[in-house]
Amino acid sequence: MPSMAFLSLSHPYVSAVLCAALTLLIAKEVLRNLKKRNGKKYHPVAGTVFNQMLNFNRMHHYMTHLAAKYRTYRLLNPFRYEVYTAEPCNVEYILKTNFQNYGKGLYNYNNLKDLLGDGIFTVDGEKWREQRKISSHEFSTKMLRDYSISIFRKNAAKLANIVSEAATSNNTLEIQDLLLRSTMDSIFQVVCGTELDSMFGSNQEGKIFSDAFDTSSALTLYRYVDVFWKIKKFLNIGSEAKLRKTTKILNEFVFKLINTRIQQMDISKEGFESKRGDILSRFLQVKGYDSTYLRDIILNFVIAGKDTTAATLSWFMYMLCKYPAIQEKAAEEVKEATSTNKISSYTDFVSSVTDEALEKMNYLHAAITETLRLYPAVPVDAKICFSDDTLPDGYSVKNGDMVSYQPYAMGRMKFIWGDDAEDFRPERWLDENGTFKPESPFKFTAFQAGPRICLGKEFAYRQMKIFSAVLLGCFRFELKDEEKNVTYKTMINLHIDGGLEIKAFHRFRD
Ligand code: HEM
Fold first, then answer.
1. CA 296 from centroid of its chain's CA atoms
2. CA R_g for the chain
3. DSSP-assigned states of every residue in 294-308
4. Strand pairing report for 389-390 and 396-397
5. What backbone phi and psi angles, to 5 degrees, belong to 140?
6. E-state strands within 20-142
7. Ligand 1 binding pocket includes 456 (Cβ within 6 Å)
8. 321 has binding-site annotation
9. What is the mean pLDDT of each run of 10 residues along the chain (510 residues)?
10. Which end is more exposed in the chain, N or C (fewer Cβ atoms within 10 Å of the end residue's Cβ)?
């Protein structure tokens, strides 16, 4: 994502704009307080969006600090009030109890629509309900499950081969970049039925698509901090001109793919598509030939499934390197569950990671979940309040306020997890028999909760468990530089800033 470093706060124009905005903020707050009626009270003001901007590179640390102090607080913003909560009863209320009063709203829709159209991530109401219904059904079918497992296995074996080469030649690996490419290939093939091969870059068109996709999502996110984006879009300049160009590349690639699939379908008429497991073919069967609708489906699912799993797996690798005893315990579990003594080929090893073997990997499941508690792929998630309301903690919110729950901050709250909240301890997710024990989704919010809970949760766990079982079963990992500070980059998903350099060593080989 473009950084905020370009903003020099000492610049006279910037200072003038800041002063004007601050005056506006204070006037707004005074006005709201004057208008207080019926004894309504509002959450404490913990700062302004300018404090957030000043803390941009350590945003989640800053917001965790505020959450520990206030649990729920407001930040003043010239355009709207921003309420941030880490209180599970408030989270349950906005995500489930009064679900219809909190949604994407026009604010998110306008920011996202050029890239994601009317896809499941951008819409509310009936448009959302219909897509949710069809997608939930497709995600629960055995066909999609079997098809996706075969793709995860293929890509996990590819990944193992790359890691093996690095281990043999004693080279370091930037594992986050590898995982990003590998999850892109996996989700793209599950969604479109086509091999993108960003792992090896053999598909030139695929590479152009992949780069355009990353640039478009970064530029779309940039709209959230760029108050001038609409003017720039109108004038077709700067970041907006670039966004227009990259979304054009995306659209051309995706429409071509859709048209080819439609032609294939027309030629073979019956039988052909019903045998294909990918999401595009399934939607073509259910919804017919609406290319724009299909484009939106494709891009929304690719964005949902790519960075989230890659970022989680990257933090997971980091945790395993930081805690070698946990790494060994998880590797031992993989070895036992797959009955592996010796690895002769990665493709063979991958086929031993069966559904039954994955079921047995409770410790691995717990370690991945513990990673998501401390490093949730979506660190903050914003909703818009549609009408005045009072939250369960007794404080009010108003129509148009932005109300966010904070998975990152919540994962670190002592009042939710106890005094060892900041420790990485997979055991907290296991019962006395070593079986995985889930937590309330209103405390562990990494996948959201309520009617809009992540639709790909099981899918994501399956992929993450297959990938990590293969990596842990075949290799041992260490950080390249133990002393290097590893932190996040502030963007929509919680990526490791600058990637993660690691060294790999073979296990159980001839
Ligand atoms: C570690 C992996 C993942 C995490 C932590 C995660 C987390 C989330 C979160 C927090 C949301 C709510 C976002 C919002 O408010 O718009 C969400 C929604 C969603 N996720 Fe995931 N996700 C993951 C992987 C996936 C995968 C692999 C897929 C699909 C293949 C997927 C599909 C979706 C969809 C379709 C929605 C929208 C649901 C709706 O609005 O009804 N997710 N996910």
1. 18
2. 24
3. HHHHHHHHHHHHSHH
4. antiparallel
5. -95, 0
6. 45-48, 72-76, 82-85, 102-103
7. yes
8. no
9. 35 55 64 64 92 88 97 91 96 98 95 94 94 91 92 96 96 96 94 89 84 88 84 96 96 92 73 70 82 92 92 98 98 94 87 95 98 97 96 96 97 98 98 97 98 96 97 97 93 91 86
10. C
Could you give the angle at the alpha carbon of 370 between the alpha carbons of 471 and 332, nearest 5°? 40
Ligand 1 close to Cβ of residue 308 (< 6 A): yes
**Which segments within 392-491 are labelled E, that is strand?**
396-397, 402-405, 475-479, 488-489
User: Which two structure tokens, joined as six digits, stand for 151?
Assistant: 């793709």
- Closest alpha carbon to 51 in 73, 27, 71, 28: 73
Position of tokens 């439609």? 262
Backbone angles phi, psi at 253, to 5 degrees: -60, -45
Under a CB-based contact definition with an 8 Å cutoff, are residues 219 and 233 in contact? no
Measured CA to CA, the distance from residue 352 to residue 339 in angstroms comes to 8
Whole-angstrom Cα distance, residue 364 to residue 330?
6
> For 266, what's the count of Cα atoms within 13 Å in the CB-facing half-sphere?
8
How much is the pLDDT for 394? 96
3-state secondary structure of 22: helix
In this prediction, residue 101 carries a pLDDT of: 98
- What pLDDT shows up at residue 77? 86
pLDDT given at position 13: 52
Q: What is the pLDDT of residue 3?
A: 33
Distance CA 347, CA 298 (A): 29
371 in contact with ligand 1, CB cutoff 6 A: no
pLDDT value, residue 18: 58
Determine the distance separating the centroid of ligand 1 and the alpha carbon of 153, expressed in angstroms.
Answer: 22
Q: How far is the CA of 405 from the centre of ligand 1 (A)?
A: 15
What sign does the CA torsion over 231, 237, 242, 247 have? Answer: positive
| Structure-token pair, residue 117 | 């159209």
User: What is the C-alpha separation between 506 and 42, in angstroms, rounded?
Assistant: 57
pTM score, whole prediction: 0.92
DSSP annotation of 93 reads I
Q: Does residue 132 line the site of ligand 1, with CB under 6 A?
A: yes
Q: Which residues pair with 383 in a beta bridge?
A: 403
Residue of 132, 469, 438, 142 whose CA lies nearest to 327: 469
Beta strands in 391-486 (DSSP E): 396-397, 402-405, 475-479
Terminal alpha carbon distance of the chain: 44
Burial class (CB in 10 A: 0-12, 13-18, 19+), 333: buried
SS (H, E, C) 348-382: HHHHHCCHHHHHHCHHHHHHHHHHHHHCCCCCCEE
Pocket of ligand 1 contains residue 405 by CB under 6 Å: no
What pLDDT shows up at residue 290? 87
Q: What tokens does 113 get?
A: 């629509």
Q: What are residue 76's DSSP bridge partners?
A: 48
Q: What is the pLDDT of residue 5?
A: 32
